[in-house]
């Protein structure tokens, strides 16, 4: 009997390819396909919404193990600062390499042929998803631009109000200053005295004016 190495079970079997029909291999195959099927189902569900999110490396750099191709695949896509959830995995599932490797894996592991189509995504389906995704990215960018426009308008309005407040304060300060100056001049005239009391008060008022602005 030929020796057979099963990469799925990671063991060498001395019953040859009969191992593929054994209960332990069937169970392991079912478990492994179940894990991949969950990821594929989540990706398919995301195809309807085609949503985008802010990119977060902790969340969006996750990889999914593709059993058929024997390698990790990035689950999410990325466009600048945006994450495209499940777009990486969907692109992989719709690719020619994955379709070929899935056929090989099914053949080699004697998997149920009826289940195979669940693990691949049709090219037309993927193309529709990409078109919806492009629209979602465009809509998000428009929203961002609108937010920036509104923020800029708010800043301009706050600056205008601040300028008005300063101008009003300066006007009050200037009126006060001229009142004090008039008052000092009257006192000087009345007393015939040119002391520095009025000057000190005026200087004090100028300091207030600086503190105001
Ligand atoms: Zn096996
Ligand atoms: Zn694959």
Shape: rod-shaped
Number of domains: 2
Structural class: mainly alpha
**Largest sheet: number of strands, sense, barrel closure:** 3 strands, antiparallel
Q: Strand content of the residues, in percent?
A: 5-15%
Mean pLDDT: 88
Oligomer: single chain
Low-confidence runs of at least 5 consecutive residues: none
Rg estimate, integer Å: 38 Å
Protein name: Coiled-coil domain-containing protein 84
Keywords: Coiled coil
Coiled coil: 26-53
InterPro entries: CCDC84-like
Q: Which descriptors would you attach to this protein?
A:
2 domains; binds zinc ion; 213 residues; single chain
Characterize this entry briefly.
By secondary structure, the protein is mainly alpha-helical. The chain has helices at residues 23-49, 57-60, 87-93, 96-109, 123-191, 197-212, and strands spanning 4-6, 11-13, 53-54, 63-66, 71-74, 77-79, 82-84.
Q: Topology of this protein?
A:
Layout: E1 4-6, E2 11-13, H1 23-49, E3 53-54, H2 57-60, E4 63-66, E5 71-74, E6 77-79, E7 82-84, H3 87-93, H4 96-109, H5 123-191, H6 197-212
Antiparallel strand pairs: 1-2, 3-7, 4-5, 6-7
Helix pairs in contact: 5-6
The protein binds zinc ion (ZN) (2 copies).
One zinc ion binds at residues 66, 68-69, 92, 98, 101.
